[in-house]
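Hey, I was hoping to borrow your eyes for a little while. I'm sending you its amino acid sequence along with the backbone structure tokens. Take your time with it, there's no hurry, and the full record follows here.
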Amino acid sequence: MLALTHVSAGYGPITALDDVTFTAAQGQITAVLGANGAGKTTLLRTISGLHRPRAGTIEFDGTRIDRVSAERMPGLGLSQVPEGRGVITELTVEENLRLGGLGRGGRVAPSDLTRIYDLFGVLGDRSAAMASTLSGGERQMLVIGRALMARPTMLLLDEPSLGLAPRIVTQIFSLLRDLVRDEGLSVLLVEQNARSALSVADRGVVLNLGRVVADAPANELAADDQLRHAYLGF
């Protein structure tokens, strides 16, 4: 579904991605792993149109997207959940969700909101609450729900476990697994918490200083002691 071929990107004289090539299959979770500074966030920004690559091509569902603007991505079926749980605190939970639905154009159907409230019961209970009153875990659920409102075929997540309690991380990763199994959603999961990511992923890609150093089924990466100690920290 997603294919990067010889993609390079950077900021001024700094190269953040260097000749990156890999694919993310439809209906699977592909985890992109690596330490801070490995190029993971730049990778997501480049895929989602927030940053232009210097070289290479990116294709999504058969369409080349490396020159497509970020505003058009939801209409193609690609939604990103950025790092940092960026809710709009001046709006209610439901208003935040409705903004996500506008990304694909047209009106937001009541069934779209019902679907998100079924997935995240706490958001339904607090639909009229201001987003500023939510806990960190609830905010993470809200930004994922907001991205799902556009009914994407692929979800891009940037460090969804950052700063969350292990119980909440397990809940969120379990939900992602259910969405892949039950709805055929494809997920590109960028994570520093390699152990948790590999426990739910089908495949893993390891970045180091902007280059792909491993690309294999998740269970093989988790079982490779040398790779885990060198790049994944567990």
